[in-house]
Write a structure and sequence with these properties.
The chain has 336 residues and is of the alpha+beta class. The protein is built from eight helices and 15 strands. Strand 10 (243-245) and strand 11 form a beta hairpin. It is globular and about 65 Å long. 34% of the residues are buried.
């Protein structure tokens, strides 16, 4: 595991070559890597041998009645302190409640050869901060226009060192009110995401280009951290080994699987977050998006249709303030 060193006046972070390499240990044989998000993965829908596969899968892609309910997967209980002490191996024992702030996954088994027609169920979870008084407006979101994925997928690369998160000048210099605000108050009067209310993404990806800047890493290293505005809810927060800790050392959040060429998530202590949200008059709004789609195969440009589902769940701790769903079905275009 890498470790960051305290900042100095001259540079950013002193190199520590004794801890190069991936952060998380590889999964053991038979171990599911993402224990933090484990809804059932479905098999590929059946296609009659005599039927055109794109036409057959079109019915599946435009059927919005069987979308999985992912709300129960937004919270998990884990003793993350003990898990970290034990080397992040296996699945943590039950413990405190943590909220899953971001994840992307496929919930249909994808074939090894993807050049032929096949189905896909792509799901994602994003989390934003909104003012509690703005929730009624957000609940009126029609769902006819997609949310801005760019505003939800906040990332920062090797323009800074990890040790500069969250308050060093080099990190804060990358903050802009309409994309990466320093505080949630800076979002007043904006609608970057498309909900009709000011909102700021809670999580951001720190990306270190291993193949370009660090030959000890085989690919880009992704580490999820709180964005600047979310981190500002916890005065004195610092990170060590990619773990956000409060000024007293309490674990606030962590990415359970920061590793090259992989995506983890961000887990945050629900009670600590609820305390900060209540103090600031904010709500955690979690956005679950699902897409049932079909890849027609190489050289086939037909569109089999698509079902797009979005669910907005607003919470503070274990109290739910809103839970709405919107669905759009895009009709197929099957003419060759």
């Amino acid at each position: 595991m890498w470790r960051t060193q305290p900042l100095t006046l001259d540079a950013t972070v002193a190199a520590d070559t004794s801890n190069d390499g991936p952060v998380a240990p590889p999964p053991r044989p038979g171990q599911r890597r993402n224990w933090w998000f484990s809804p059932s993965v479905r098999p590929q829908p059946g296609v009659p041998p005599s039927q055109d596969p794109v036409e057959a899968l079109s019915g599946w892609a435009t059927d919005g009645s069987d979308m999985p309910d992912l709300a129960a997967h937004l919270v998990l209980r884990a003793d993350l302190e003990a898990w970290v002490r034990n080397g992040r191996v296996g699945q943590p024992a039950p413990g405190r409640r943590y909220r899953l702030l971001t994840v992307t996954d496929h919930l249909v088994e994808l074939p090894d050869d993807r050049s032929h027609p096949h189905a896909d169920l792509l799901v994602s979870v994003d989390s934003v901060l909104v003012r509690r008084e703005a929730l009624p407006t957000a609940q009126r979101w029609s769902g006819t226009q997609p949310l801005d994925g760019h505003a939800l997928d906040v990332s920062i690369t090797d323009a800074i060192f990890l040790g500069e998160w969250p308050a060093a000048p080099a990190y804060l210099a990358n903050c802009v009110p309409d994309f990466r605000p320093r505080t949630w108050q800076e979002t007043a009067g904006t609608d970057a995401i498309g909900l009709g209310v000011p909102a700021v993404a809670m999580a951001e990806r720190y990306c270190w280009e291993g193949s370009t800047y660090d030959c000890s890493l085989p690919a880009t290293l992704n580490i999820y951290l709180l964005g600047a505005a979310a981190a500002a809810l916890f005065p004195g927060i610092r990170q060590s080994d990619g773990i956000g800790r409060a000024a007293d050392g309490t674990l606030v959040h962590l990415d359970p699987f920061p590793a090259p060429d992989d995506d983890g998530t961000l887990l945050i202590d629900e009670a600590l977050l609820a305390e900060a949200l209540t103090r600031e008059g904010l709500v955690l709004l979690q956005i679950i998006q699902q897409s049932k789609r079909v890849f027609a195969g190489s050289g086939d440009y037909r569109f089999a249709g698509e079902t797009l589902s979005t669910r907005l769940i607003g919470t503070v701790g274990d109290e739910t303030f809103c839970d709405i769903s919107r669905q759009r079905i895009l009709p197929p275009r099957l003419a060759r």
